[in-house]
Specification:
Elements (H helix, E strand, L loop, with lengths): L15 E6 L2 E8 L6 E5 L10 H7 L4 E5 L15 H15 L4 E6 L1 H15 L4 E7 L10 H6 L2 H6 L2 H17 L4 H17 L1 H14 L5 H5 L6 E8 L5 H9 L4 E9 L2 H4 L1 H14 L2
Parallel strand pairs: 3-4, 3-5, 5-6, 6-7, 7-8
Antiparallel strand pairs: 1-2, 2-4
């Protein structure tokens, strides 16, 4: 799949709002035609919804879009921990705050895992999510880097300075994100990321280290317990940290999942926003 021509237009900050969450806050964005169908989008690890501006702006031409910076990400406040349960609680709190019902959940990478986990919780809260579209979801089958393997041993991680861990994780993030991306798009993403990171550098490092050391990155039970009407998973094959073939085999045993594969980078909503919007439209139409 070829990269799309992508606008570097930023999101209108007048549609952003800080809402209360636990003892801190969440940065949210809610925009689009008032009476349109609603999409709730959840971003990936180390990112912010602001880095998906081309995707969100394309989406809100037809839909009303609700986004949230996950705890400790973007411009949301810090928490004592950053478990999947806290992430799910944040997304549910955002939906409850805006009093929306009958919406599609959509997520990328970590956000896709959070969206799938949030679905069942939202059913319990009677928030009425319709379906989930998961782009390159975390939680199924990883290929562990050397750094990720080392951090599994607490005695080793305790010997490594936190700054070294954070810098190493950031370098791996850049390699994963930038190695396939067109230069102009990559420069725009880096500029937005660096601006965001500068405002919350210490918080970002603390959260990143907590998640690298404590977050359970393979959570197949979340997928096995999914009871939704429909979840579509789209795999991106240019990803050195995900075992796509093993993931596909796992999903084939869970008949609530429809799956597809595309020859593009892990950050598919950033690199191919129109393709992703088209997939959302197709899944929405199937659930009408």
């Amino acid at each position: 799949m070829d990269f799309e021509h992508i606008s570097t237009q930023k999101l209108d900050q007048t549609f952003q709002k800080l809402i209360p969450f636990r003892d801190s806050n969440l940065n949210t964005y809610f925009a689009g035609p008032v009476n349109a169908r609603i999409i709730v989008f959840v971003h990936g690890f180390n990112l912010s919804f602001s880095l998906y501006s081309a995707f969100i702006l394309t989406l809100q031409d037809q839909f009303r879009v609700l986004c949230v910076d996950l705890p400790g990400h973007g411009y949301s406040g810090e928490q004592n921990e950053y478990s999947l349960e806290v992430m799910v609680e944040a997304v549910c709190a955002t939906v409850s705050y805006y009093k929306i019902t009958s919406f599609m959940l959509c997520g990328h990478s970590l956000g896709a895992l959070v969206a799938i986990a949030a679905y069942n919780q939202m059913l319990k809260l009677k928030l009425n999510p319709l379906c989930v579209l998961a782009f390159s979801p975390a939680g199924i089958q990883l290929r562990y880097s050397v750094g990720m393997r080392l951090l599994k041993f607490k005695f080793i991680s305790q010997m490594i300075p936190k700054k070294t861990i954070a810098n190493g994780a950031r370098l791996e993030f850049w390699r994963r994100t930038g190695r396939f991306m067109p230069k102009q798009l990559w420069e725009a993403v880096k500029e937005e990321y660096n601006t965001m990171n500068a405002a919350n550098k210490q918080r970002n490092e603390d959260r990143m280290i907590w998640m690298l050391q404590n977050f359970k990155w393979e959570q197949k039970e979340v997928f096995q317990q999914f009871k939704g009407r429909l979840c579509k998973v789209i795999w991106a094959y240019k990803d050195q940290y995900v075992n796509e073939e093993a993931g596909k085999q796992f999903l084939e045993g869970n008949d609530v999942f429809v799956q597809d594969t595309v020859n593009v980078i892990h950050e598919i909503p950033i690199a191919c926003p129109q393709f992703c919007v088209n997939e959302i439209i197709k899944l929405m139409e199937m659930n009408e």
